[in-house]
Each structure stands twice: as structure tokens, then as C-alpha cells.
Amino acid sequence: MTALASFDVILETCRKISSNSCQRARTLTRLRSRHACKTRGRCIAFAGSSSTKDQYLLRASVREPVNNKQVIIKSASRTRKGKGKQTPSRQLPDTLPAEETGEKQTALPLTAAQRAKFAERLQDAQRIEDLFELVRDAEVLNPSEVAVLPVVLMQLYKQRSGREQAAVVTHPFFEGLIKPWALEPSKLPVQEQLATLNCLVEMNRWNPGAGHALTRSIIMVSHAVKNSLQGVPNQFTAAELLQVLGSCNKTVVMRQACPQLALACLTACVRQLDSLNPDQLAQVAFTSSQTNLRLNLKGADQMRILVRAGVARAPAMSALGLTQFMFGAVALGNIKPAHMQTLVTTVLGVVPQCSAAALKNLLWALGTAASADRQLLLALEAQLLSQSPYLGASHVSMAVWAFGRLNHLPQLGLMQELANQAMLNSACLTTKHSKQLLWGWYTLRYYPPDALLEAIAKRLTPLVHNMDARTLSEFIWAFGGLNYEPSNMQLFLQAAQDRSWQMNTHDISQTMRGLANLRLGSRLLVQALVHRASTILDTFNTQALANLAWSMAHLNYKHEGLLDAIVNQLLRDVDDMNQRDLADLLSALAMLKHQPITQATDTIVQHMLHLLQEPGTTWVLQDLSTVCWSLAKLNIGNRKLLDLIYNRILVDIPVLSAKDISYQLWGFAVLGYPLQSQVLAAYWDRLQHVLADLDPVDLAHVMWAVARLDSYPAPGLMDALLATLPPQISSAEPAAVVIIAHACGALRHHPGDAVLAAIEDHAQQNSSSYTCANWSALLQTFTRLHARPKRLFPHLLKEIQCDNLDMDSKLLGDCLMSLAVFEAWQEPLYTQIVAQARSQALSAYGMRSLRQTYQVDLLAQHHGVVPAVDLPESFQSQAQEHWYQTQRPFNTTQLVQDLCLILEMLRIPYQKGISASSGLLLIDIAVTDRQVAIEALGPLKVLRNKPVVTGRAAHRQRLLNALGWTVVPIKEKEWLKLKNAEKQRFLQQNVLKGRPAQAFLKLLLLLQKGRVQDILEAYGDLYSSLAAGNHLSWQDYLLEEVLIGKYNCFARGAAKGELLRDSPLHKAVAYDLDILQKLAVAETTLVSWVEDVFRSLPQGWPAAAAFSGPNTKPQQEACKTKALNLPRELAAPDFLKAPLSPQQRSAYRAKIGGKWRWAEALPELQYYYETYGFGITAASSTLKWAGGLLEVHTPPTGQTRRQADTGQVNYTDTLVRRALVQNTENFLTNTDFRSSILIISSAPGSAVAWDRYLQQVAPLGVRLVQLNSTDITQLADVALTLQQYPRVKFAVVCASMMCTEGSGAHAALHSVLTGGDWPNNAILYAASPLTVSKSISSCFSKVMRLHDLGFEPN
Asked: Which terminus of the chain is more exposed, N or C, with fewer CB under 10 A?
């Protein structure tokens, strides 16, 4: 038998012996580390105890002594604690007894039979002792036969116990085996060189601490193999080359001492590319890449050739071969993007055939290259699911890491399956696997089960103390990113603290970020990291600096010096800061309330403006929201910056998260940035979809912003928002709960009993964290909502009595007010508060709390409550004096105006806004002669979602009652409902507001029960009022008021063109017209009623009544006017026509009055409003602005007019009027007109005759509005008033404008004309007798300069 044949037999034997599991390998590794040994010369020191029998079994006989020394095996086991003795070392002979060794015969060559017997005995060898006997019995072993022995010995070595393994390789027996061929390895054949190298590498792999003899032998044999590779070409087969490449990176000795061997092997492979099949080529690339990764070979040319050849032959590779080649090509780093795309396309077809090992190679390649298309990723997901039972720890970690690198989140089922497999193989996870898993999960934002994270952390427990600073920082960062704190986290923190002095900028940044995410305020570690950071701060980049500041803020660790240094460092490198760095820095400064210097703020704002304006810059929504919140915290209200942020946010509102919405709304509200109603509606709509994501802080931000913006969303949304509070209120901070409650009070929105109960429970359970300001805010909320707390008063009393709360004057006043509102005079808290109020000095009171105490004391004395505060007179006078000084002017609301109007109609004397000084309050409307106080309960005094007045409004009413007033509360909502239900007969009610109507109603009232003299006075008053208004009859007056429609919403809607022909309002109008028709009694009927009461009526009265009736001759003569021709379809024009003449109006009244039922004239009435308008615009074409209102202006007539024309009729005036008329006509047709024209008439006699201009444009339907020069400052009010008549065309004329630069008139012109506030239905003509500055003339769209012979436009 040849040596090679014997070697094949031995290899087969080795395969049988080495069939061990992964579990056995882990056990052996653990035992080897536990029973490690140290070799000192020829002395072997065991870390564990060993019996004498075991030590003798490790002995071996050699043919000659080694350096004439003995091998001493010592036990390194320590004595027990408290024992001073040690076990003495035993010296063992280096030879076995004579009966075991025997004498060696002369070496003779082995016969064929002996070789066969030798091979059989090798197959049967099960113990090391068998090998010893085999060596003794063999006559002669040639080098090839000796090379076989280490293979079998290594397989047996793997099965030995841990304490025996350390002494095997270093035993003299091995030196005896190595010596025959290690001295001259080059004399061995090539195949035996490879076999020997593989055996020695395997021995060194299993025992890295082997002796120097083994190391020298490996180096010598590797040099021999390298010389053979560089010698005769092509003498190695592909399998042998792959074997050499695989051996080059297995052990430390090979990686450090034999890099040239790997390079020579790679060169040989490149020379033999044509003889390699595609899979062998893939395996060469795979093995070369691993060798290159470890040895950092410089064979770039060989690698480039290898990759190019592999890409061309990739389609012929198997699934495993293709994935190995992709792994190698990416690892070698010589692959082009086009080649990578080719490989990706090719591998897509073989993914279903990939095994777990192939998938691992493919995932590493794709993750490292960060290149994959969606189809390949989906195919990978499907194959990973099918191969999941065969995935080990390395496969799972590689898959998660690769998906993280590719930023691709697989389907949830695959992620769960990978997590399950990681849990099953958690005992096999290494530090590298754990880092890959945690990094991938954090990158994908996938949160695995806590049990799996805990298992990973426990698996790392024995490895923590051997980790370097970088690894520790990465684990802390990953656990922080996954928001999980393992039970052994303190072990990581302690190790990080011990290695903090070794950390660089990246390590510090990651460690601080992880601590901040977990909110782990490990003070010593943070101090150590901050100290280390301060020493190497100049090495930090902008991202690391921003991360450091952000982490300090979230750890609530404020270091002024370091923060200033960070800001200064960032300002030097401000151009390198990206969007995320800016957001982190601003949020850190905002959270730590660290206001940078003005220069730093300006620099940050300018850089942010640059990033926002730079095209192509992408901002993450979260960063924009954080910036908005931070700017509000730092009070940086740069309007241009806010405009840019606002414009970027607008398009992304439908995809905002709950936190983004809360940050943006809060920031805009604090900075006072106006939000349009459409934008707020978009926010409310998005908020409905993310309610489940709101935490208490976000809810507090939203509620506070709603209250600050005074933008009340739908009640349903408010209730849904507040419904999210009770389930998570236990984890809420007191500040957040108080803000939510305070916002409800400010919005006057009752949150519901469940929410209020939850707030009370939170205050009771966290009372130690509540400050006086928090208690005051809660009491104000319950008071405003008029919702009596159930448990707040007793618990607050308990806190006061236990001295847990240092009550201030503000809390004292709020307590008294709340107790008074709920009339809780019997509460023990009231007695306690009164006692403290009595002991307060005047200087201790705030003015608000003093006023509250004064009012409550007044109310308590009225109700006879004992005890009362009994404030001294000095206190009362101080409260009244301060109230007078700080009293604001009375605000007249629309409700107050309506109530006053009704009182005037009823001729009831009243006063509005009078002070009740003894109660420190103002009365809305007071009927003093009857001591009646009318309280106008507007929106601020009534809850929005409940028909309940606020607590303070109820307190006012009780206080007025205590002062002797009879209170008549009128809620605006009910008043408006009354107006909509009862006063929808607006024609009837508004028509009857005039003096004739009041006289008529008074007469009707007196005819029922009144004195005769009063009846005659009322009758006379009626006809005198009709005569004063040039009304021929009572019916004529009613119809004229109907046509005017001054306070008529039907007329207003028709004039604006907003009223449909079939509107539901028509039925109410028809009903009101019928009512008015019944009221329009004939004068003869009215006289007969008076005559029934007063028999001796003057004889001329009936005749006069008959003459002034509706169908009398004077009426018929008045109606003899031009026929009133109405269009058949009654279509409204585009804009209102010129007002009707008095004769035409009389014809209109006659047409309505001639109907059998006035309601039949409803279409004509609507057409009248739509064509001629209502109110003052339907009465005259010439108006004037006076006292802030439009009034009818009567132009001069007769001699006065002729005098006004004197000196104004000239050629220039004619040209100007012609230009103005043409511009007005263009304005009416909406074609090429100027909205504002300035006429500079500085030359004498060049004024404009405006009455002549009016004669020309009045028939066109234009209403001329005269504006005095002094009223130019009210131009904004004029514009606002004209906007209320959108279908009326106005020409505003200022005949003599006196305006200087910088004056109020100049500011008004610039604001209205250039600011876009001038209405579209008006034009402005202004004439100035003086030359004006360029800044004033630039406000107008056209300027005319008059001269003696004409004008010159700009």
C-alpha cells in the first residue's frame, strides 16, 4: 500500500470520528477557555486539577531526550480560601516503564503486508495510547506515513476532555513525529506537502497556543508550498489550489506569517483560469475574497482578471457557485456597477434553488454593495421563508443586516420568522451576530419581542468585559434605538464607563444617543463621556456635535461650558451642517433652555434659510416639525423663515404624524404665525386619522395651540381628542395634564365627566409633583367649566394641612373663587382658606387675588356665611382703586347693540357699561330706574358644547343679586335662535322700527286701553311723522320701507346675488308680506277706530283721511308715471343699475300694493333688490363718507350749483372728465381700467367739475362716494364697507386731497392700495391741488398732471 492510499483511508476514518455536532464544538470551546494552559519552556501548567492516571496517560516515549530536560506537569489549582498550603508539583519521567516501552529494532522498510496492517490499526485507533503503541510497533515510518498520523491524532484530540487537550500538541510525542520531515519539507512530493500543511494548520487551529516547534513547522512547510507554486507552473490542480487558499486564513500563524503564499496561490489560479469550471472559478473568487479580507493582499490585477472572467461565466454557475462568486466579487472590491447589475439579473433566476449557505453569501454581497432591485428582494423573501427551518444564527443575522443595508423592510411574516429562528439559535449568537441583528432591526424600525432582546443581552453577558469601546457603544446605541433596556444593562454601562477614556467621537456620540433614547441618566457615565468629549471636541464633526447636544438635552444634563463650545464649534463648520444636524441642535438648545448669543442665532437662521431655499434640498417632516417647535421655544420669530417652513409643510399635511402635528401647531401658535382656515381644517382632518398615536404631551401641545389660535374644531373632534387622555393619563406628567385642562377651560369646552374624573385622580395620585400654579390652573378650569370637582377640595385640604403645599396668594384667590362659584360654603377647605386669608398681609396679595377675595367676601356676607373673610376697609379701598385703574373700556358686542335697539324701540331708558363699584364689575345694560341688569351672555360666557354658563358668569349674576340688582340673562345662542325662528319675519320686524311704525303701534296699543288725550296725541304723531317723511299714506310708508330693506337680510342676500329663486326663505317672506298687508289699514278705517273711542272727532278728519287713502285721487295722480316694464324672466344684471327716480319708486309701490295679496309680488320684490340694491345704495347715486358710515349726499342745485361751476369749465377739465368717464366705462365692462388715479391740479383754475362727471356716469349705475381729505386715514374702513356690496360699482372721489409724505394719510394709501386691500368693485379718483412726492404718487396705478392746455399721464 502506498502512502497516498493510506492517507485516503485515514481521511475516511477521520470523517467517521469527527462527526460531531455544533453543540459539541461549543462545549469544547467553552472547556478550552475554562481550562486554558500556559506553556513556560518545558513546564505545562494546567488551570484545573488532574489525576495521576490522566497525567501518566499524557506521557509519551521518545527516541532521544529533548534538550536533556524533563517535562514537568504541574497543577495550577489554588488552595482553598484560608488554607496556606499548596499542592507540590510532581515530576514525571519522560519515558514509560520498561514493560510499556520496550526496545526499538533497527529501522527497516515496511512490507506491503505491514503497510496494510498499519492502515487497519490506524482505522481502529480510538485512543491516543493506540497511536503510541502504533509508533512503537512500526519498524520504519517514511515521511508520507508520518504525515498521516497527525490527522488521526487531531480527530481524537477533539474528543478529549478539556484539561487533557492543552498538553497534547505540546507533548514531546508531536516533536518526535514532526522531526523526520519538518526539517526538510521541500523533499516531500507536492501532494504530501499540501497534506502536511493542511494537518499542521488544523492542529494549530484547534490549539492556537501550540509550541514553537509547530509554528516553525507551519512556516517551513508553507514556504515549501509557495516555492512549489512559483516553480513549475500548473503542477497543482484546482482542488489543491482551493485547499491552499482555504488554509491561508484559518489560523493566526498563517495570516501573519504566510501572506505571500496566498498571493502566489491566487496568481496560480489566475494562470489556470481556462482549466477551471464555472463553480471552481466561483470558489476561487470566494476563497480569495476571504483571504483578501483578512490578509489585505495587494493583488489588484489578479483580482480584476478573476472578477471579469467570473462575470462572463456567471450564467453557467450553480446557485451556490453564483452566490459565492457574488460574495467574492463584492469583497474583492473590483466590480463595476454594470457587472453588478448583470449579476443581480442572473442571480434572480437561481434564487429558488439557493440553500441557506447560498442565501447568506448572496445577502452579504447585496448588503455590502447596497444594490438590489425589488423583484430580487421579493424573491429573497420567499426563499428565506421556505428555508427558515435551516437558518442558523449567522444566516438570520446576515439577513437582517442585509435588509437594513438595503433599507428594505420585508413582509411582517418573514421578520417574525427570522426573529423566531434567532430565538431558537440564541445560544449560538456571537458578538458579531448580535451587532448585525440589533443594527438591522433598528435601521428597519422593526421592534422584535422583548424576550428575544433579553436573550441576546444575556448571551452577551460573559463577553461584555472583553468588548472594546466601539463594540460597547454600538450595543448601547442599538438597545437605545430599539427602546429596550435589558436586565443586564448596568453591566454594559459599567464597562462603557471603564473604557470611556478610549472612546473616540463616534463612540461617544453613539453611547450618548443610546442613553438618551433609553432615558438612562447614569450620572457617572454621562459625566465621564462629557469630560472625554470636552477634551477631544475639536475632532468632532457636525453630526457628532449635534448628536452630543441632542443627547445631553434628552438626558437633562446641562453643561453651559460644553454647550457654548458645541455651538461655537458648529458655527465654524456651519456650512457642513445638514438638516438633521440643525434640527438636533435647535431641539437641544430649546430643551435645555440655552439661549445662544445673537450672532450665533443669526448664523443658524441664515444657514437654515439657505437650506430651505436651496433647490433640491429634501427635508424630513420630523426635522421641520422639530425646527418649528424649537424656534418657538427659543423665541426666534423670523417671518421669512416661518414662511418657508409653512410653505414646505403645506403639501405634506395629509401624511403628518401625531407628533408632527402637535409640534407644528404649538410652534405656530407660540410665534403668533397666522394659519388660514383651510390649513387648520386640513390639520383637523389629518388629526382624526392619528388620534391613536397621541401621547399626553402631544395632546397638551394640540389643545394649547387650539386655545391660543382660537380655532375651535368640530365638537366631535374635540371629544375624540380628549377621549385619548384617560387610558394613558397614568404616565402623563402633571404639566401636560394641567395644560390640557387649562385649554379646555380657555376654549369653554366641557371635556366630559370621565375626563374630569381622570384629571382629579391624577392630581390625587401625583400630588407631590403638583405645584401651586398647577393647583390654581386646575381650579380655574373647573370654575370656568362650571363643573364641581368631586374629590379635589378634600385632597387639596389634606395637602395644605400636611404642609406639602406652600400656598401663595394666587392659589388662595382661586380657591375662594371656586368655592364661591360652587357655593361650597360647608366645605372644610373654605374654613381653612378663610383663616389663611385673614392672616395675609396686604403686601402679600396680588391685585387679582385681592379682587377675588373681596368679591367672595361680599357674596359670603350676603348669604350669611360664617366665617367670612371680613377684609379691612383698607383692603377694600385698595381693591376698588386698582379695579378703577385697570378697567378696560366697555366692549359693545352685537348682542348688546340689538338689545339696546329694542329698548329704544320700547322707549325704555337704559345705560350700557355702567360700573357697579361695590362689586368691582361692569353691567352690560342697566335699567337704572327699575334696578334691572341685563347680562348679554355672549360666546365667552357660555360653554361651547353645553347650554351652561361659565362659572364666572354665574358668579357675576349672584354678585349682582347680592348688590340688589334684578338680573335678566340673555344668551346669544338663544337670542339668535329666536331671531331665526321668530324674527325670520324680518320684513315685519325691521319695517316697524321707524318713527311712523312706532307711532302706529302706540296708537293701536292706546286704542285698546288708554286715555282719550293720549289717543289723540298718538294719532297726531302718526300723521306728523308720515308728513315729515313725504309719505302720502300709512300703506305708502310700509311699502317704501319694504323697498328700502335697510335691515333686511332677504334684501341683502338678493342684492348680493346669493339668493336662489326657490329658496326656503321665500315662504317666510310671503307670510310676512301678508302680515304687513293686514297692518296696512286704510286711513278711513283708522279714523273710524278713533271715532269709536272719541265721539267728538273734528269734522275735517274723516275727509282728510279719505283724501289720503291708498286709492284716492292724490295717490292715483302720484302713480301716473312712466309705465313700469319688468322683464318677463326677471333675470338679475351683472351689477346693480342706477337707483330709480321717486316717480319710478312710487310706481313700484303701486304695483305691489295693487296685488290682491302682497305675497304675489315676491318675484318683483326680489328682482328689485337684485337690480337696484337695498338700503342706502338703492336710495341715491351720490353718497358720502361721514362718521365712519355711508350717507346720502345731496349735490348742490340751482344758484349754488351755478356758483360752484364758475371758473371750472375749461379745456383741461373736459379732457380729464373724458378720460375719467372712459376709465369708468372700462371699469363697468371690466376691460383695461385703472383702479386708482391721481389728478395733480396744481395750476390755477384747473380743478375738476365732479358734478358734471357724475351727470355722465350716474345713469351707468355707478355710485359716487365723496371722501373728504381728512378721511383718507379711514381708507381701510371705506374699503371694508364697500366690500359688503359686491354687486355695486363705486367711484370714490376725493376732490381735494392734502397728503404729505410720512403722514397717516400716506400710510393709509400705501397700506390699502399697494397691500391688495382695495376692493374689486371700486375705483378711486383723487385730485391734489399741490404737487405730491413720488412715494405718494407711486401708490396710484395712474397719475395725471393738469396744465393749461391738457394733461400728461405718467
From this structure: C
